[in-house]
Amino acid sequence: MSSAILSVVAGERVPDPVRTTPSTNPANTADVVGTIGVAGPDVFVQAARAAREAQAGWAALPAPQRGQVIANVGRLMTANKDRLAALVTREIGKPLAEALGEVQEIIDTCDFFIGEGRRLYGQTVPSEMPDKQLFTFRRPVGAVAVISAGNFPVAVPSWYIVPALLCGNTVVWKPAEYSAVVSDAFYQIFAHSGVPAGVFNLVYADGPDTFAGLEQALAAGLIDKVGFTGSSEVGSRIGELCGRHLQTPCLELGGKNPMVITEDADLDLAVEGALFSGFGTAGQRCTSLGTVIVQESVHDEFVRRFSAAVASAAMGDPTQDVLFGPLLDEKFAAGFEKSLGWIAAHHTVIGATGRVSADSPRDGFVGDPAAGLFYHPVIVDGVRSDDELFLNETFGPVVGITSYTTLDEAIALGNKSGYGLSSSIYTTDPNKAFRFAQGISAGMVSVNNSTSGAEAHLPFGGNGKSGNGSRQSGIWVLDQFTRWQSLNWDYSGKLQKAQMDTVTVEADYNFLLP
């Protein structure tokens, strides 16, 4: 029991977990990365109370000094980049090159928000009254609960935690159980960067206990904002819970991201983008490609080139030079197998389906497929707009293909699933690019680029089943972790009533030039 990784509340490890669970390497399930001590709802509430008690003191630290703490985080992330990336690869099976990019995203986020510590601008606003000044200020929201998924176990949490801390909030973070070891390493870097005890708290809990703890913490008035990355189904429940307390959560949910390929597209470039966004991270990104929507005149040629690219793509051991490795965890493998059950008789399946094994081998596989949760990449052509495979997120290495006649039809197909996270169009015609961007419901649009890929200074987020319109990254996330406060200061020595005591400037509206 003592060797288990435990939750941290107010700087102290919380003993006596309700149970322990191993976190295993999905590329080699015999490799136990660590043992996690899982807490109950009471620990989440304790963490929320610690965050509440620490918040005023943290907010009183001048914003430039909080920015210096974020600078420290960035420096320590840089110093530990290789170690942290290797742990990401080992615990969730993400190829090392991608894992290094994920840690770099934390560093980029820190670099951006260092400067915000010297900005966090409000405004001085002119008053309609004499001897009176108006001001606006950004104020921290208070104590923030962050609940994150494990497919991006360190980058995505940084999108919440870095700006939340910079703005003067305190944090309770509940990471995914299957990425708990790397989450603990992430926490330790913050703790060694000068973040005080209680300002950043870490809770390991399962889904039901997390929800129960959040429900209790909200009812007790301990949490002022919730940030959640995960499935649309759970996000809906969290949104409903927060709504009871008149709170608006920051929800970053799933996606069924379309890629439109026009008749004038550079097909080789489109294939490259579809390969990376469809099968990178084994299709386990919220921004992974869902359906390729190809103009009918180039459909067959695109399918031919894309099939060849997928067949020759390297997969396997994520410590090697591969496009993708295993699925994240047994539960995701089970979920993906359910998605494969949506393949119907009218579909054309290109490539093998299911788990890579001795009975179902893959040419050029890197490593031992029997060691981990490795699944064949699948292309499904002939997908129809009422298919479950077209309408639902699959979260695994499968890409659907359909065709279209007119661009308006392609846009309608791209919107039909009800998700609205990311999208892409490949075209050499600017008119098509702008028409697509105007018509698509996604919060993010790429032109001649994949559906995946975020930068630290660009807003990230979706609409519909992909989120509630909230945005992360860049200056836009500041609206999630601050409240606007207006201040009016009247130094006239008398009560001046707005809209009532204002001076009206008269004009002669009958004047006409001779």
UniProtKB/TrEMBL annotation:
Residues 19-486 form the Aldehyde dehydrogenase domain. Its EC number is 1.2.1.3. The keyword Glycoprotein does not apply. Belongs to the aldehyde dehydrogenase family. The keyword Oxidoreductase applies. This is aldehyde dehydrogenase (NAD(+)). PANTHER family: ALPHA-AMINOADIPIC SEMIALDEHYDE DEHYDROGENASE. The active site is at E252. It holds the Pfam family Aldedh. Keywords: NAD, Oxidoreductase. It comes from Kribbella orskensis. Signal peptide: none annotated. Homotetramer.
